[in-house]
């Protein structure tokens, strides 16, 4: 069946004008009329937000210190603007392409290489387009977010098109991971690997094992991917996670640093490295990682004010705090306000940290002025926002001229926040915790967290109660520790206040020790069988 290109919308992402023009000319001769171009990942993301494309040609190497072509797929996926019906063709040398297909859900659909030739481009496109035509019912369900229906469609398509079984199994595995069907996903990917080593299937198997808390097995699988020299950020990230879960932060940092050397422009990876380095007091690494995360997350879904505040926190923690570092910190706090205009919490946090910077520099008058600004901005916040930030607020005011006013403000906020549903649940949880009814306390904290997710204080309360409950006899120990590890992993350590950081490290170390003890027992049992 002849494929018509006249109705296809194509996006080409390439910063080499001559090559771009050549590919555009070839596509034009094939009948493609609607062709748009972008010279960077960020520019391409802008276009993808506005319009659906049938085919995206993306150059892998877009230049030093620039996001590469794989990151377009990664960031479009994270932002929710990647459509499964769109064909992503990575432009890369054939030798290197074999190293780039270890990613599970961010791999391209196909690849082409330079120099371009119409027969080669046509052959690659028609091959994948015929597959996409068959997969159209599945792609439509995935684009609509109907995961359960998509699983049923996978079964149907496998029966109708057995030759595409491996392709469909990959999609099925991705869906299972997204739905939390980790045991089924691990079994599926394991069966694929047993028949033939596929890097993406090994990564999927490692991810599923991690989600189930089987860190040692996950480590073996993911290490194999890296040993085979596959250029896969997910393998490094999830392998590092197995080391971090067992309290081996140094090894986790080493793995993440290697990953950054391979892909130095991935914001999420850089943020994770910064957080772990800060936990290990490796301030130079943390400063560099957070600074790079800020730079490479601009205009993407990964942009986060946490990176800015974490950078300032790392600068404050360094032993040598000279005028240059002070200026760097203040400039970063000014930049975050510009990056997130009209966000009162960001403005408040910026001035709060400015007070800490000036105090660290010995400029008490400036610190008092910044603290007063922060106090006034705090007063203008909504009650929920005040209740969220009251502890860091009071901590940041210590040693300034408004410390007494801040203490009085805290009392007012604590009293008023009891009227908030999540605040009421948090108080009930703390009362139960003091009575050592950890199970009941945990239920209250979980309910509070569902109303106000991603609040560090609530998350730390939840983890503390869960760890105490995990110490008690019962069948929930493994599940509770896994939930604690996931909750702690989701917190950016650098953005916490100093007291929160101290509490985080204590809980993280306790969690890692308990997981390690459980793993050691399991390993000993297996060795004796």
The major sheet is characterized as:
5 strands, parallel
Parts with pLDDT < 50 across at least 5 consecutive residues: none
Quantity of strands, as a count: 5
Strand content: under 5%
The helix fraction, in percent, is 55-70%
Order of helices and strands: EHEHEHEHEHHHHHHHHHHHHHHHHHHHHH
**CATH architect. name of the domain at 1-129:** 3-Layer(aba) Sandwich
- CATH homology superfamily of the domain at 1-129: Response regulator
User: What integer is the average pLDDT?
Assistant: 92
The rounded distance between the terminal residues' Cα atoms is 59 Å
- What is the global morphology? globular
Q: What's the CATH C level of the domain at 1-129? A: Alpha Beta
Spatial sequence of strands, sheet with the most strands = 2-1-3-4-5
Give the number of helices: 25
């Amino acid at each position: 069946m002849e494929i018509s290109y006249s109705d296809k919308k194509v996006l080409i992402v390439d910063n080499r004008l001559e090559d771009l023009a050549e590919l555009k000319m070839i596509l034009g001769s094939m009948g493609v009329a609607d062709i748009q171009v972008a010279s960077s990942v960020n520019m391409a993301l802008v276009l993808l937000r506005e319009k659906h494309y049938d085919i995206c040609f993306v150059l892998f190497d877009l230049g030093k210190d620039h996001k590469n072509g794989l990151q377009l797929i990664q960031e479009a996926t994270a932002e929710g603007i990647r459509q499964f019906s769109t064909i992503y063709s990575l432009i890369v040398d054939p030798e290197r392409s074999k190293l780039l297909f270890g990613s599970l859900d961010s791999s391209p659909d196909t690849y082409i290489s330079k120099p371009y030739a119409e027969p080669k481009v046509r052959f690659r496109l028609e091959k994948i387009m015929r597959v996409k035509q068959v997969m159209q019912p599945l792609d439509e369900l995935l684009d609509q977010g109907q995961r359960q229906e998509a699983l049923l469609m996978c079964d149907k398509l496998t029966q109708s098109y057995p030759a595409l079984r491996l392709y469909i199994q990959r999609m099925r595995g991705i869906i299972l991971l997204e739905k939390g069907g980790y045991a089924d996903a691990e079994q599926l990917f394991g069966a694929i690997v047993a028949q033939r080593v596929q890097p993406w299937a090994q990564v999927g198997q490692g991810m599923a094992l991690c989600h189930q808390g089987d860190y040692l097995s996950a480590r073996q699988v993911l290490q194999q991917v890296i040993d085979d020299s596959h250029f896969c950020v997910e393998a490094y990230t999830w392998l590092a996670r197995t080391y971090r879960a067992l309290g081996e932060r140094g090894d986790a940092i080493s793995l993440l640093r290697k990953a950054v050397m391979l892909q130095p422009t991935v914001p999420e990876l850089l943020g994770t490295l910064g957080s772990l380095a800060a936990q290990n007091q490796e301030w130079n690494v943390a400063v560099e990682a957070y600074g790079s995360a800020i730079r490479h997350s601009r205009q993407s879904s990964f942009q986060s004010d946490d990176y800015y505040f974490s950078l300032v926190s790392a600068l404050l923690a360094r032993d040598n705090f000279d005028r240059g570092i002070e200026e760097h910190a203040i400039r970063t706090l000014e930049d975050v306000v510009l990056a997130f205009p009209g966000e009162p919490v960001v403005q408040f946090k910026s001035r709060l940290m400015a007070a800490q910077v000036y105090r660290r520099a010995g400029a008490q008058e400036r610190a008092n002025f910044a603290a007063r600004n922060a106090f006034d901005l705090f007063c203008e916040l909504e009650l929920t926002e005040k209740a969220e930030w009251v502890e860091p607020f009071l901590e940041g005011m210590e040693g300034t001229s408004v410390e007494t006013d801040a203490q009085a403000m805290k009392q007012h906020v604590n009293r008023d926040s009891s009227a908030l549903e999540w605040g009421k649940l948090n108080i009930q949880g703390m009362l139960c915790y003091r009575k050592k009814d950890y199970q009941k306390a945990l239920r209250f904290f979980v309910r509070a967290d569902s109303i106000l997710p991603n609040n560090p204080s609530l998350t730390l309360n939840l983890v503390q109660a869960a760890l105490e409950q995990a110490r008690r006899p019962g069948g929930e120990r493994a599940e509770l520790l896994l939930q604690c590890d996931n909750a702690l992993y989701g917190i950016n350590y650098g953005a916490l206040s100093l007291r929160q950081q101290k509490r985080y490290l204590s809980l993280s170390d306790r969690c890692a020790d308990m997981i390690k003890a459980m793993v050691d027992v399991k390993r000993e049992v297996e060795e004796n069988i």
